[in-house]
Amino acid sequence: MKNLKMKLLATAIALIGWFSVAIAQDNPAQTLITNVNIFDGVNEKMIENANVLIEGNLIKTISTSSIKAKGATVIDGGGRTLMPGLIDSHVHLGFATLPAVDFLTGDPNYNAIKSTKDAEAMLMRGITAVRDMGGNVFGLKRAIDEGLLAGPRIYPSGGPLSQTAGHFDFRFPNEKHPRFGGDITPLYEQGMGYLVDGVPEVLAATRDNLSNGASQIKLMTGGGYASPADPLLGNQFTFEEIKAAVDAAADWQTYVTIHAYHPSSINRAIDAGVKDVGHGQLLDEATLRRMAKEGVFLSTQPFTVCSEPQLSDFSNAKLAEVCKGTAFVYKTAKTIPELKLTYGTDMFNLPEDVFAEQVQQMERLLQWYEPVEILKMATGNAGDLLAMSGLRNPYQEGTLGTVVEGGYADLLLVDGNPLDDLGAVTDANNLKIIMKDGVIYKNSINK
Question: Which CATH number applies to 2-85+402-443?
Fold first, then answer.
């Protein structure tokens, strides 16, 4: 009898626990943010004197009237600006502040730990989502999604695909190609990139990336300034190779993005079906207009500092050439309103103090764009880009980059009006609340 009572008691406790979890799931926690002006990531005019109700990780209600939410945690916005969390469309979390020697030959355990610190630093700058444009960050993404550590949402490309002697061929001069008697170097062995030639190898690498969890595929289709051998203006991958990757990605309902700077390589990629250009600083007007007409995103970066400390003289000479085109591309793109631009930084192998300028780099765009135009690149436009990953989108419950009902509660509450003064966002001290997925990671309203 005693054993029966104990079993009944244990069953009752288990049922109570189950019902408690069920009730919590049916009634997620609510946060009510009152008295704010809203930049929604799309429109250039604020929604003034508004209130926002967040339920769980989603925005439930936006209203200029009062919202009744019994039991909700209430935050008085004090007339501040509520806006979407920032999105950086070009990051390398696997080696953002990793010295080049560790990137190429280092201990993968140390490298992974280093990336966790960089991920948290990004989030605390107000960057709530990123598109990782090359590297093995699948484990990092999983750890962030599971709440094991703080960081932005990650849309991973996985290891970028490079042809032999292409932009991601970082073998040392004394390292033979694996096909010609050499060993697989740590970079490729650890899934940081793929060295592939020919349609079958491109298909295999694309499919391997997708099976690992890539939300989009990254191809190196033109020369680069950081790579040790290739000419800056060279074309990489044939039309057939690029189309193979595009077709394989499309079979998984997603898209291909590319590393390329100049019209020849970019037009070849667009011919093959590529939907996003990851650089493009050396583009001409005709290609920019073609991109606008065909719905191809320009995910470029404000390269105005034409020398980087981690690069060789050879690489910095190529970077200087890329820099020359930056002003033309931004000025021309502004005359093509149909062309969608996103904000990205492409920071890698940098000291932490330089990496800390990730958001401040938006200020480089002020010579061509108004603050609201810049912020749209880093919010609404970037959210549309991320959504192109279709069925490979790892975050399908809500939308990103906007403050809308049904969207994810990835939000910033900032002092001042960022549509008039970009410093309201680029100065981290102005970020009073940083929220991602309905969770507050910073709240300094009363400080």
Answer: 2.30.40.10
| Residues 92/137, Cβ–Cβ less than 8 Å | no
- Contact indicator for 299, 255 with CB cutoff of 8 Å: no
**DSSP letter at 180?**
G
Could you give the CA distance from residue 233 to residue 282 in angstroms, rounded to a whole number? Answer: 9
pLDDT at 221 over 80: yes
| The pLDDT of residue 7 | 56
Kindly provide the residue ranges of all beta strands, DSSP E only, lying in 20-113, ordered along the sequence: 30-38, 47-55, 58-63, 73-76, 81-84, 86-91
Q: Is the pLDDT of residue 18 over 80?
A: no
Q: How far apart are CA 329 and CA 368, in angstroms?
A: 10
Task: Spell out the residues 6+ positions from residue 204 whose beta carbon is closer than 8 angstroms to its own.
Answer: 196
* Structure tokens, 394: 């790892």
Tell me the fold of 86-392. TIM Barrel (3.20.20)
Mean pLDDT of 104-132: 95
Q: Per-residue pLDDT for 368 more than 50?
A: yes
Structure tokens at 85: 């969390």
Place of tokens 């935050």: 75
Long-range Cβ pairs for the range 263-268 (8 Å, 24+): 263/287, 264/222, 264/233, 264/235, 265/221, 265/222, 265/223, 265/234, 265/235, 265/236, 266/221, 266/222, 268/221, 268/235, 268/239, 268/242
Q: How many residues can be counted in the chain?
A: 447
pLDDT tens digits, residue range 54-112? 999 999 999 999 999 999 999 999 999 999 999 999 999 999 999 988 888 889 999 99
In the chain, CATH 2.30.40.10 sits at 2-85+402-443
Number of C-beta neighbours around residue 424 at 10 A: 21
* Helical pair 239-251 and 263-271, crossing angle rounded to 10 deg: 50
Render pLDDT for 311-333 as a digit per residue (tens, 0 to 9).
888 888 888 888 899 999 999 99
CA angle in degrees (0–180, nearest 5) for 442-445-446: 120
Amino acid at 28: P
Confidence (pLDDT) at 24? 42
Residue-level pLDDT at 240: 98
CB atoms within 10 A of CB 385: 28
Q: Residue 191 CB: number of other CB atoms within 10 A? A: 19
Q: What is the pLDDT of residue 20?
A: 44
344 Cβ contact partners less than 8 Å away, ≥ 6 residues apart: 88, 89, 90, 91, 131, 133, 278, 299, 300, 301
